[in-house]
Amino acid sequence: MDPIRVGIIGASPDRGWAVRAHIPALQALPDFRITAVATSRPESAREAARLFGAEHAYTDPRALAEEPDVDLVAVTIKAPAHAEPIRSALAAGKHIYCEWPLTGHTAAAAELAELAAATTVHHAVGLQARYAPAIVRARQLISEGYVGQLISATVYSARGLRAGGTVPAWAAYTLDHRSGAGMVDIGGGHTLDAVEYLVGEFADVSARLAIRHPRAVVAETGAGIEVTSPDQLLLSAFTRGGVPVSVHLHDAKVTDGRTRIEISGTAGDLAIVSGENGPGGLQMSELRLLGARDGGAWAELPDRDPLASTPLDIEAGNVARLYAALAQDIRSGTTTVPDFAHGVHVHRLLDAVRASAEIGTTVPRPTAQPTA
User: Fold this and answer.
1) SS3 of 167, please?
2) Contacts (Cβ under 8 Å, ≥6 apart) of 345
3) Where is the Gfo/Idh/MocA-like oxidoreductase N-terminal domain (predicted)?
4) b vs e for 4-36, b when ≥16 Cβ sit within 10 Å of the residue's Cβ?
5) Which of 159, 187, 217, 285 stands the most exposed, by the fewest C-beta atoms within 10 Å?
C-alpha cells in the first residue's frame, strides 16, 4: 500500500522533539513518508525539508494541513499552541498525531475532542509510554493471570532535570506552571496513563504537590528563574476495581534518577524498572520487566518488541511504536491508539490531582469514557 504522507508542524532542523523522536521514527517505518514540514521561519523550514527529504516547506500550519500531498498532520510544537493546527487539520480532513499534552487547558482539549469525534479522521495523542515493550508485556501478563488477583501498585519515578539548581535553556519554559509542560503535565500525564493502562482507571485521587526548588539558573546564560511548576507529586488512589495505588514523582534528583513500577498480586509480582532517566521520565527510558512468583527471586522477563530489528533509540522507539499502531488503525479502520477523548481523560485526571492538592482532600473521579 502507498505510504501515509506526513506533514510535521514544529520540524526544527536542529533541535526539539520532532528531530529527536518523530523524524527518526517516521523514517524507520515503511508505512509513512515525510512530505511536508512547517517551522516558524522560512529558512529553517527550507532546511528542514532538505534534511528530512520533504517536498514542501511551510511557515503557516494551515497551509501545511491543506497541502494535498499530506494525509496525516503531526503537531509537535509546545502544548499551548496545539489548538489552531489541530483545528486546521480537522477542517482539512487530515489524520492527526498530536504530542502530549493535547493542549494547555482541559476545556480546550475537550472542545477539540468533540470536533474530532464529529469527523471520520483518525486522531492520536502522544502518550507513548504505554507502547514501551516492557509495559505492553506486563499488561499482557497481568491479563493472563501471572500475578493472580491484583493487590497493589507502587510507583516511584525520579529524573535529574534541575538537579544542582541549573536547567538547560531548552527546558527553562517548563518551570512555569502556565507552560503546560511541567512535571505534573508531562511526567504526570505519561506515568499515570501508563499506570492506569496496567492496573485500571482510578476511582479517586488524593494528592499533594510541592515546589522544593523554588529557584533555578539557566545553564547557558546564568539567568535566574522563579519556579512555579511543582517538582514533587505524591498520589494515593484506588482503582475502580479496588486496587490501591501509590505514586511519587520527583524532579531535580541529584543522584540515581530512575523509575520503578511494582505491581503485586496474589500469585506473584511484576516490576518495570529503568536505569537513569536523564531529562525524560518513564516515556523516554529504557525499561526492563522483572517478575517473581511463588516466593522466588526476581528474574528478568523477555518482552516482545515488534521493532526489535529497527535501529532506534529509546526516545524515537516508543514514538515509532505508537505511529505503527496508528498506521494499522488507519489501514484497517480500527481505533486502538489513545485518541483525543482519551487525552481529555488524562487532562481531567491531572485536574483532579491539582484539585486534591489544593483543597487537601480526596477527589472522586467520574466514570471515564471507554478507551482502547
Assistant:
1) strand
2) 368, 369, 371
3) 4-125
4) bbbbbbbbbbeebbbbbbbbbbbbbbebbbbbb
5) 217
